[in-house]
Amino acid sequence: MKKWVILMISVLILAACEAPGIMSNSQKENKIAVTQMIKLKDIQYVALGDSLTEGVGDELDKQGYVGRMKKEMENWRGVKSVTVTNTAKRGRRSDQLIDQIQSGKIDDALEKADIISLTIGGNDLMKIVRSNITDLTKEVFDDKRPAFQQRYETIMQLIRERNPNAPIILIGIYNPLSIFTKEKSDMNTIMQEWNSDIRGFANQDGHAVFINVVDLFDSNDNMVYHTDFFHPNAKGYDQMTARIIKTLHEVDLNKLSHGQFDFKEEDSTDE
To answer: How buried is residue 155: exposed, middle or buried, by Cβ count under 10 Å (0-12/13-18/19+)?
Structure first.
């Protein structure tokens, strides 16, 4: 009888020791099944906006954050290849972007886009600065803000008329003048308010995401500016890209993309 008791206990102990391995294999099979549910496809990435999307200032010629995002996307689940259509132009304002979209010249690209990114607004602010350089007050920016809100809303509507579902990455604006002074100014408040408007449009859309970059360029301590002290350099674009990726992790890329693609699971090794 004692031999049978010892045998039964030994069997139970061995079963308990093996159970984690069995569960682990089952979990791995489930992960593989989930991964296979996302079908590989050729991704069309359309980039819109101004010099930041064009990649001005990138001394490494990696096409700014857009080129870096392309490289990141090529490692996503569900992505076979990435084709970039970059329609951005240095100096472009929101009214000029509206004209570009309404011209119909990029309709085909927008309709086929699987993901879209956008930088716009910086040149709108600079136009206000240049036009009111002798009497620049916050009230001047406040007066122009509703018109910018309307133009941004129009841009979102025009994009969605051509493509109702593609995730849109809305990158905020920053104040390059902040590198020359540590003092708080009305420009800090203006940046917060105008970025809040852009964030609001992202939230209203449901499949758009706002990327805050103000803090990345509030000084040049980390040497993130190009020699013109206006555009990012390669390091600055690296940081922009990292912020985009971090934010996409936080908002759930798979949900944002309607299940088209996602970040890959971190590699794990058996102990």
So the answer is: buried
